[in-house]
Write a structure and sequence with these properties.
The protein is 27% helix and 20% strand. It has 239 residues and is of the alpha+beta class. Strands 5-9-1-2-8-7-6 form a seven-stranded mixed beta sheet, with no helix packed on it. It has a two-stranded antiparallel sheet with strand order 3-4. The longest helix has 21 residues, at 27-47. The protein starts with a helix and ends in an 11-residue tail after the last strand.
């Protein structure tokens, strides 16, 4: 389902089936509530040990890397012999957090031939002094950026995960289109959760609107803006 379609469903129910021109709901406000509700329900599904659906996993096929500088992290100052430590140009979009950790499904080379194992900042610092584990090709996340230890010169990698904001991965594809219409993008959600997400979003909006003055929310009537890279990953849809 496209973002525009699910926003329209929410507005139709909120306005009791008739979306009028004087609606106080902007697309940005509706989308913000939709994505937080989506994250909550997907997290509940995963916490119940239900397998992550392939239909909600998003892939950034072309995530750009650069060579990490010594001041990026302590372990980067002396990389293992024959290895390089690379850092993502952009911060990684935040994955949904479940009881098992962040739902980052895979980090691989673009062709999928090499899979990088996950570690963390603390373990990586200790690994850097161990001749048996320091050269293991793996990744960790620090300050929102992804770091990779590898013996290959990589410009891009591929990352798959279940992200809090379905729009964020689209804006980080360095090899993708330079201009997108946010409202036309897919709202990654399993069908059996759609009605619940819509209903919970409407309930939240009713509460928000009741607590705000009549003129506190601007009815955004401008056309949806085309978003250009690199700022587009930070944009939410507008009406």
């Amino acid at each position: 389902m496209r973002i525009n379609d699910i926003i329209s469903r929410v507005k139709a129910i909120y306005n009791k089936g008739i979306e009028t021109d004087d609606s106080r709901l902007s697309d940005r406000l509706v989308y913000d509530k939709l994505k937080s509700t989506r994250s909550l329900l997907i997290k509940r599904e995963i916490d119940k040990k239900r397998q992550v659906s392939d239909w909600i996993v998003q892939t950034i096929p072309c995530f750009e890397l650069v060579t990490a500088l010594p001041n990026d992290c302590t372990s980067c100052s002396i990389p293992p012999a024959g290895c390089k430590i690379l850092k993502s140009v952009n911060k990684l979009p935040k994955p949904i957090q479940s009881v098992t950790g962040p739902e980052l499904e895979s980090v691989t080379t673009m062709d999928g031939d090499k899979v990088f194992s996950k570690t963390n900042w603390v373990k990586k610092r200790y690994k850097s002094g161990d001749k048996y584990t320091s050269a293991v090709e793996d990744y960790f996340i620090k300050d929102g950026h992804l770091f990779i230890t590898t013996n290959s010169l990589l410009k891009y990698i591929s990352i798959s995960g279940v992200f809090e904001d379905p729009l964020a991965p689209i804006g980080l594809d360095a090899c993708g289109a330079t201009c997108i219409n946010p409202l036309e993008q897919e709202f990654y959600l399993d069908g059996h959760l759609t009605d619940a997400v819509v209903e919970m979003t409407v309930q939240q909006l009713v509460g928000v609107m009741k607590s705000m003055p009549e003129d506190a929310i601007n009815n955004a009537v401008e056309d949806p803006q085309r978003v250009s890279q690199p700022q587009r990953q930070q944009q939410a849809p507008r009406k």
